[in-house]
Structures are given as C-alpha cells and as structure tokens.
Amino acid sequence: MSAIEKYFNGEILQCSIGVAISLVSIGVGIYFFFWLKQPYYKGLAYAFILISVLLTVVCTTVILKSPKDAQRVTESIASNEHKKIQEEYLRMQNVLKSFKTLKIAELIIVAVCAILLMVFSNVPLVKGIATGLIIQALMLYAFDHIAMERGKVYYNYLADVLGK
C-alpha cells in the first residue's frame, strides 16, 4: 500500500469510527434528554448532541472527499506535476497547524470546564454541560492526535517526493 493510500484510508477508517461513536453519543444524548430529564443529564445531552453532530458532519465530509483526494494526489505524483504536489504539501502544512490549534482549544475547553465544575458544583445543568464537554473534548483530542500523527507521516512523504 502506498503512503497516499495509507494516509487516506486511515482518514476514512478513523472518520468511520468517528461517525459511529458520534451516532452512539447522539443516541445517549437523546436518551438523557428525553428519558432521564434531570438537569444534569440534560446538560450532558446538550454537550453530547452538539459536539457529536459537528463531528458527524466533519467526518462525513472527510469520508466523501478522501477517495477523490487520494486519486488526485496519486495522479499528480505519477505525472510528476510539481505544482500540484507542492499544493498538497502546503495543504497538509495547514492541516497540521490546524490540528495543533484544535488540540490547544480542546485542552482549554477541558480546563475551563473543570473550573466550571468547581465553581458551579451545585448547579446540575452547568455541571452536566461541563462534564459532557470534558468528555467530548478529550475524545476529540485523542482523535486529533491520531490524525495529526498520521498526517505528519504523509507530510514527510510529500516532502520526500518534493526533495525537501
């Protein structure tokens, strides 16, 4: 399997897992919201549903785009189209920067929500939202870390192709 196939197949696999986890999380959120109905669980539901819907949209987009992107890059390398390879290299550079930013944002969310848990420990709705956001942010951090590491390997492959 080529480095290109490995990267994009990894994207598809990880995003497929992300969609599955998100759908379960949405289901749990709906259960919390409509059946448990207590403020703490409603707070969890808000965080679970909101973040999971966003993750589902992002992952579905990646799943749909990846085969075309893989084909585009494979063809660019096969025909030695330096400009298109350079564009992909720069795109990946931006993707890796975005992952760094996302991971920092996710850690900030965890820290802020931990503070909210301490300050509003007697407010069940806030406690539920904060707990849900911590769970979701840590899951997203793990997903982004895995994707970033895979992206670094692919980025280095592109650098080698370009002779950088």
- How far apart lie the N and C ends? 23 Å
Helix content: over 70%
Could you report the average pLDDT, rounded to the nearest whole number? 97
Q: How many distinct folded domains?
A: 1
Q: Could you spell the SSE succession in H and E letters?
A: HHHH
| Number of separate helices | 4
Class based on secondary structure composition and strand pairing: mainly alpha
Low-confidence stretches: none
Report the principal-axis shape.
elongated
Global Rg: 19 Å
- Give the strand content: under 5%
Please summarize the sheet with the most strands.
none
Please provide the count of β strands: 0
Overview of this protein structure:
The chain is mainly alpha-helical and 164 residues long. It has one domain (3-162). The protein is built from four helices and no strands. The protein has helices at 3-36, 39-78, 82-119, 124-162. Helix 1 packs antiparallel against helix 2, helix 1 (3-36) packs antiparallel against helix 4 and helix 2 (39-78) runs parallel beside helix 4 (124-162). The longest helix has 40 residues, at 39-78. The chain starts with a helix and ends with a helix.
Notable characteristics:
mainly alpha; elongated; 164 residues; 4 helices; single chain
Q: Brief overview, please?
A:
By secondary structure, the protein is mainly alpha-helical. Helices cover 92% and strands 0% of the residues.
Helix and strand arrangement:
Layout (H helix, E strand, L loop, with lengths): L2 H34 L2 H40 L3 H38 L4 H39 L2
Helix pairs in contact: 1-2, 1-4, 2-4, 3-4
